[in-house]
């Protein structure tokens, strides 16, 4: 095998496939990146529940394949000068890496036995822009649970339904739903591990280019221009989240997002490092009062808002409010309160691109 | 003919023997208890081959009436109770009337006994339950009980005996327990001709501990004496530095009987929590005196287990007694010369330990008041007259420990106090004996001085004053500086104190964080979907009992029927990482906590979480500190409830005596 390619392109590809390589494995080959030259240069990283395949342009002189230790190969390429990189495999699996005045000859492993990505039977396929998928992940990923005892909640539900694509995450205290329209009229449901979604988020770019999502029984395939990402699915039935969303509300308000974020952030400044306190929100006379009362002291914030409904006093974990408000990407949002002890809902003023639900803290 | 028959008496006895006579140690235990019930003040146990070949028990007790001897071998023959009602007020060790018959059925037994009134003794021989003969013989007052060839007629049982050394070990343990239970009786244990235990029998528990476990342990125990909830608890709790790798040294006695009781053990270990490292267990000798009507001792044939009518009450009382003893006393770990400790241990192995103790104590007092010196003079004279044959041996032995004794005494005021106490006890004891010989007119005087002294010793030993004393000392000491940017060095008088700065700050933070949590208001975070938790019947019952308390902590729960409860909200502070599995853990901890009558949030947050917080927020090693900072830290540390150990049980403060340094430099040899 022999090829040369641009250092930047190579590095980018390594960075992507590395996300699916185990850093500590019992078999050395599993700590490696699979490299193959055929028509183009293909690299693969594969671990237990995720696999990534990436293709880049290269000047291929001789076809072949090899496995190189991911960390070592990555570290070497990262520090090479920005120039053309020449890579050649010798018959004894030693790999020569040359770039400008640098020369490496490192041991490689036979590519035989490397776990290649499975083929995904094309059952249901949809496409969505990279930006949209990115935003959906961002708006929901913070709400996944880390309770390993309820494994299904450590992933996000991805659901296509009559032209809508939604992503849902919940951890028992809050719920986040993000939604976009898609052209396809398919119906499917799958739960993707949160950890994998985080990696996918990093690979996705702010671009209008499409991601194709294909689902099979136990895996999901995300196809980008140069990349194929396969993720295992979490088994089990996801909660019927729609049942949790209340339909009747005592009060609803409209607030300026950046104002309320700043107020809550200030109010949570006086909590102790060791222990956090809830914030109290009092809504009356077109004003919102955000207070906190901790062993360090007290704070008060006042915001002008539009109220529709009864006055209300309610407590929240400030982190939960901030997590949701920060990803709203809107100037103003509407907040609905079902009661002072019931869930509240944050929605955009127009449309239904997201719904955030938060359970309150009982304040005495 | 039917298949059901009544077993002949001998077979019945052999079967019954299985319950009581399991191994040689059980025979020793049963027979020594008989001796104690017969008011013996001196008991000697002599064994060969781990008791398999022979066990000889000699006491100076009441003896058995010649008319009764034969009957005593019958099953359910007892002189100790008359009817079942007596059981509830039982004060003797034995009562079931099974032991003698059971032992006799599986071995060859010989008994030589004489009561005070009888003109001559009587010798009885029984083999395998068969009465052979009873004939008059010359004998001193008391009973000698010889068991030979144990299990000779039940080879199946014999097979199950362990190696000689192991069986001897069991006997050693049994005698140790009895000796601790009865410091008023002089116990002697001879194994293969070697004396391995010899307690003074002078009514003083500390000198018994000294003779059984040696000086290091006797000097590292804290006396406790408290009466709470109608239970009197006395004895000694070992400092953390003499902790053990197993529970074998947690001695518990209920109404004079050694017992194993989970509640008491749990209460003791709870009191030592954060003072001991993991997997370490305390040394304790605890004596509980409790109304016999509230204890059921007839649970186990060998009476090793007891039941209490109110377990929680016992837990609280024991926990309180041990905790308060520990919280008041100085627990600073002292760095000592390893060499001297070794010598010390060796000296304790000698057969004339008891005498040695007395002598050492006598000599160690040389600097004390004039009056005391006179007493010592008398003591020594008396001892000389008593032990003339051992004189040379003694003088040899005294030399060695004296130096150590003196060095210990100079730098350890607390230990002096303890020694004084031992001395007081010994003295009173000896004076009693003295009284029998002659009655010098000034004896009364000594006694009153002695009483005064022991009172003084008691007040000096009052826990709070010791703790205060440490605090005072450390606060007044000069900050020498910091070593390796990790250890604080203080100096006062002839002592250097080294403080692990990370451990110290961690302890300060730990208590502060815990306090914060205890004062917290209990907010509760609502759950989107209720969590269903299935409980066991017992947990369910506890849940119902504690429902109000659980609610106050921030849980919102309801009974869903079928031993399942629904959790609708959880305490705010643990909402982040609460999982349904945690609830049962928390419930269990709450049960323990309520037992102790403590309330707070500490029990819903895993202790480890608080450790982690404390550890993270504490300053680390390798961090320079200014003198001002050091002084502040030392002050904060001394305000904590336990400035001696970090939360993981490691020591925070250690001290080194000037003398130890001088020894290292060979200024003193």
Compose a concise summary of this entry.
The complex is a heterodimer of chains A (364) and B (669). Chain A is of the alpha+beta class and 364 residues long.
Task: State Rg of chain A.
Answer: 25 Å
The CATH architecture of the largest domain in chain B would be: 2-Layer Sandwich
Mean pLDDT of chain A: 92
CATH topology of the largest domain in chain B: formyl-coa transferase, domain 3
Low-confidence stretches of chain A: none
Give the arrangement of secondary structure elements:
The complex is a heterodimer of chains A (364) and B (669).
Chain A: E1 2-6, H1 7-18, E2 32-37, E3 41-46, E4 50-56, E5 59-62, E6 64-69, H2 70-79, E7 84-89, E8 94-99, E9 102-107, E10 124-129, H3 130-140, E11 155-161, E12 164-170, E13 174-181, E14 188-193, H4 194-203, E15 210-215, E16 219-223, E17 227-232, E18 251-256, H5 257-267, E19 279-284, E20 287-293, E21 298-304, E22 306-309, E23 312-316, H6 318-326, E24 332-337, E25 344-348, E26 354-358, E27 361-362
Antiparallel strand pairs in A: 1-5, 1-7, 2-3, 2-6, 3-4, 4-17, 7-8, 8-9, 10-15, 11-12, 11-14, 12-13, 13-26, 15-16, 16-17, 18-22, 18-24, 19-20, 19-23, 20-21, 24-25, 25-26
Helix pairs in contact in A: 1-2, 3-4, 5-6
Chain B: H1 9-20, H2 24-37, E1 42-48, E2 54-59, H3 69-72, H4 99-105, E3 108-114, E4 121-127, E5 130-137, E6 142-148, H5 155-159, H6 164-181, E7 186-191, E8 194-198, H7 205-213, H8 215-218, E9 221-228, E10 231-238, E11 250-254, E12 257-258, H9 262-271, E13 284-289, E14 295-296, E15 307-308, H10 311-328, E16 333-334, H11 338-349, H12 353-364, H13 370-386, H14 391-411, H15 413-437, H16 443-461, H17 463-476, E17 478-483, E18 487-492, E19 495-500, H18 501-519, E20 524-534, H19 537-552, E21 556-559, E22 564-571, H20 580-595, H21 607-617, H22 627-638, E23 653-657, H23 658-664
Parallel strand pairs in B: 1-7, 11-13, 16-23
Antiparallel strand pairs in B: 1-2, 2-6, 3-4, 3-6, 4-5, 7-8, 9-10, 10-13, 11-12, 14-15, 17-18, 18-19, 19-23, 20-22, 21-22
């Amino acid at each position: 095998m022999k090829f040369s390619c641009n250092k930047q392109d190579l590095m980018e590809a390594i960075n992507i496939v590395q996300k699916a390589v185990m850093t500590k494995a019992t078999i050395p080959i599993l700590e490696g990146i699979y490299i193959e030259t055929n028509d183009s240069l293909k690299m693969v990283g594969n671990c237990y529940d995720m696999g990534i395949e990436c293709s880049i342009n290269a000047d291929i002189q001789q076809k072949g394949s090899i496995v190189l230790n991911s960390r070592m190969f990555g570290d070497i390429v990262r520090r090479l000068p920005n120039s053309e990189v020449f890579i050649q495999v010798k018959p004894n699996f030693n790999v020569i890496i040359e770039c400008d005045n640098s020369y490496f000859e490192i041991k490689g492993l036979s590519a035989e036995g490397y776990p290649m990505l499975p083929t995904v039977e094309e059952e249901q396929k949809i496409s969505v822009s990279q930006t949209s998928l990115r935003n959906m992940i961002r708006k929901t990923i913070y709400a996944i649970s880390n309770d390993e005892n309820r494994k299904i909640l450590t992933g996000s539900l991805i659901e296509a339904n009559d032209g809508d694509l939604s992503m849902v995450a919940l951890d028992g205290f809050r719920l986040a739903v993000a939604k976009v329209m898609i052209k396809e009229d398919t119906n499917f449901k799958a739960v993707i591990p949160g950890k994998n979604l985080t990696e996918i988020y990093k690979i996705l770019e702010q671009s209008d280019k499409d991601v194709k999502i294909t689902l099979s029984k136990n895996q999901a395939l995300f196809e980008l221009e140069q990349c194929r990402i396969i993720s295992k699915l979490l088994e089990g039935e996801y909660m019927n989240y729609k049942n949790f969303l209340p339909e009747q509300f005592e009060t609803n308000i409209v607030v300026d997002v950046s104002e309320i974020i700043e107020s809550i952030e200030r109010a949570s400044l006086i909590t102790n490092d060791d222990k956090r306190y809830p914030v109290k929100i009092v809504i009356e006379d077109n004003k919102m009062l955000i207070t906190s009362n901790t062993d360090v002291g007290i704070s008060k914030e006042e915001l002008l808002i539009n109220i529709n409904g009864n006055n209300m006093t309610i407590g929240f974990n400030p982190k939960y409010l901030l997590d949701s408000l920060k990803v709203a990407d809107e100037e103003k949002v509407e907040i609905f309160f079902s009661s002072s002890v019931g869930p509240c809902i944050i929605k955009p003023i127009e449309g239904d691109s997201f719904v955030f639900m938060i359970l309150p803290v009982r304040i005495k | 003919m039917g298949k059901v028959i009544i077993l002949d008496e001998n077979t019945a006895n052999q079967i019954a023997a299985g319950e009581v006579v399991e191994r040689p140690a059980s025979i020793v235990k049963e027979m020594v208890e008989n001796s104690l019930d017969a008011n013996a003040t001196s008991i000697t146990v002599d064994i060969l081959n781990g008791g398999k070949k022979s066990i000889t028990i000699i006491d100076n007790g009441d003896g058995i009436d010649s008319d009764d001897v034969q009957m005593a071998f019958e099953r359910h023959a007892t002189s100790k109770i008359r009817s079942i009602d007596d059981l509830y007020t039982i004060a003797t060790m034995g009562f079931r009337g099974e032991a003698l018959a059971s032992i006799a059925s599986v071995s060859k037994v010989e008994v030589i006994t004489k009561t005070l009134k009888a003109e001559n003794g009587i010798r009885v021989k029984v083999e395998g339950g068969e009465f052979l003969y009873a004939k008059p013989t010359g004998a001193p007052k008391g009973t000698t009980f010889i068991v030979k060839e144990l299990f000779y007629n039940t080879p199946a049982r014999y097979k199950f005996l362990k190696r000689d050394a192991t069986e001897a070990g069991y006997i050693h343990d049994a005698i140790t327990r009895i000796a601790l239970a009865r410091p008023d009786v002089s116990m002697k244990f001879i194994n293969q001709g070697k004396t391995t235990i010899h307690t003074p029998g002078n009514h003083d528990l500390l000198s018994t501990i000294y003779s059984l476990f040696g000086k290091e342990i006797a000097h590292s125990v804290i006396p406790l004496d408290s009466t709470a909830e109608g239970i009197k608890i006395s004895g000694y709790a070992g400092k953390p530095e003499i902790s053990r790798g197993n529970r074998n040294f947690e001695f518990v006695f209920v109404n004079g009987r050694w017992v194993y009781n989970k509640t008491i053990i749990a209460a003791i270990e709870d009191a030592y929590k954060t003072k001991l490292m993991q997997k370490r267990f305390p040394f304790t000798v605890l004596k509980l005196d409790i109304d016999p009507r509230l204890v059921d001792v007839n649970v186990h044939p060998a009476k090793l287990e007891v039941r209490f009518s109110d377990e929680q009450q016992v837990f609280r009382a024991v926990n309180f007694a041990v905790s308060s003893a520990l919280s008041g006393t100085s627990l600073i770990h002292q760095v000592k010369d390893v060499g001297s400790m070794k010598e010390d241990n060796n000296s304790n192995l000698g057969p004339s330990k008891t005498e040695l103790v007395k002598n050492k104590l006598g000599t160690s007092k040389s600097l004390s008041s004039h009056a005391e010196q006179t007493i010592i003079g008398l003591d020594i004279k008396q001892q000389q007259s008593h032990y003339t044959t051992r004189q040379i041996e003694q003088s040899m032995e005294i030399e060695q420990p004296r130096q150590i004794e003196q060095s210990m005494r100079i730098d350890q005021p607390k230990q002096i106090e303890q020694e004084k106490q031992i001395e007081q006890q010994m003295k009173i004891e000896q004076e009693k004996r003295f009284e029998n010989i002659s009655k010098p007119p000034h004896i009364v005087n000594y006694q009153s001085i002695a009483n005064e002294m022991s009172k003084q010793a008691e007040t000096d030993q009052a826990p709070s004053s010791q703790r205060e004393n440490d605090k005072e000392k450390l606060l007044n000491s000069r900050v020498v500086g910091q070593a390796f940017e990790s250890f604080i060095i203080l100096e006062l008088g002839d002592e250097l104190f080294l403080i692990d700065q990370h451990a110290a700050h961690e302890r300060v933070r730990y208590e502060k964080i815990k306090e914060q949590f205890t004062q917290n208001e209990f907010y509760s975070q609502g759950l989107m979907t209720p969590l269903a938790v299935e409980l066991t019947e017992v947990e369910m019952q506890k849940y119902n009992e504690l429902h109000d308390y659980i609610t106050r902590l921030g849980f919102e729960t309801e009974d869903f029927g079928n031993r399942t409860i629904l959790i609708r909200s959880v305490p705010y502070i643990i909402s982040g990482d609460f999982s349904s599995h945690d609830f049962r853990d928390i419930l269990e901890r709450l049960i323990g906590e309520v037992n102790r009558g403590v309330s707070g949030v500490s029990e819903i947050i895993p202790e480890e979480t608080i450790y982690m917080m404390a550890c993270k927020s504490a300053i680390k090693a390798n961090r320079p500190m200014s003198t001002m900072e050091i002084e502040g830290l030392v002050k904060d540390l001394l305000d904590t409830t336990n400035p001696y150990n970090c939360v993981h049980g490691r020591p925070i403060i250690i001290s080194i005596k000037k003398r130890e340094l001088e020894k290292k430099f060979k200024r003193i040899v």
